[in-house]
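Repro:
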Amino acid sequence: MVKKVLLIGIGVSEKTLTAQALDAIENAEMFFGAPRMLEPVAIKGKPALPIYEAEKIRECVETEDKKNFVVFLSGDTGFYSGANALVKALYPFEVEVLPGVSSLSYFFSRLKRPWQHAALISAHGKEVSIVDAVRRNKETFVLTGRNTNELATRLCEAGFEDLMATLGENLGGIQEKITAMPVKDLKDYSASSLCVLLIDNPLPDKRVRTGIDDAEFIRGNAPMTKAPVRAQILSQLHISPEDVCYDVGAGTGSVSVEMALSAYEGRVYAIEQKEDAFDLIEKNIRSFHLGNVTCIKGSAPHALKDLPAPDCVFIGGCSGKMDDTFSLLLQKNRNVRIVLTTIALESLSEALDAFKRHGLSAEILQLASSRAKEAGSMHLMIADNPIYILSAGGKDE
């Protein structure tokens, strides 16, 4: 007997079931799904089990003396659905997937707006970078996963408190509610556990910027890597969008900011031990509307021990513990990309020795930049301190 399992997306409610899905339900002999999906569907006294775990469903299909099974899934089977895991788990049974109306398409239809340009993210059971999605897109649609207040708080911390949010609760049901409000009001709003969120940003910024003008940063008294040097550092780091990056001795956080703009789907850890500099980093992160930077108070290597393995590391200062810092970084990821800057010849010698002791062949670059400064009717070139940039490691080495 060939057993067949149909994975049916029920849409936002039983009212949005397709005609094809209704025919399949009529012919099915047994049903699976979360309780809230089984209850409203008329299954005419046929057996139904309130389970949705892929392996448990497979076990039942194997043992039951029946031919046609249906698994109900919320929304659409192709939009953050459990359908993919079920397709794999149910092999080699015959499986057919029937899509439903997603909360995305239903919600935008209620707003009378198209959705093809919206960024789509899900906060169900995982950390998401909602701030960076909002910063980069005019429209960001979120499956909130009962995290509505937390997501709003993150947006407010990043300086997006005045953007407009539209919340869709209990879509397709008798308690459906659609509400628009500023993000700052969403922090304390008591939302339904079944809700979606749309954030509108009229001034998105998708630029991946390097060598940002020094004047755009909040300076204070902390040391800051100048724009020409920063541009060269970022070019040497070879950052991919999903990378984990460390900025060791972050100062004002100028390198952290540019790392975060490049690793917009990843995470940047800004490590700084000085209190005044640490506060500046947080201010600059908010100024650039970044949600993927974590500030760590401390110094290397101790402050790095509990962090996830890095792909790229910039070392602007590690308090004389360069060798121990290298050992820890390479223990976490043998292929980590390390870029280091130094001005003093003594520090250059120490850095070269550290690279060599750990089997890394460092590329050495000296950068000497000058800027024009007005002097009456003339312009004079004013030189910055020459700086050494050392780099080694990475996926291709």
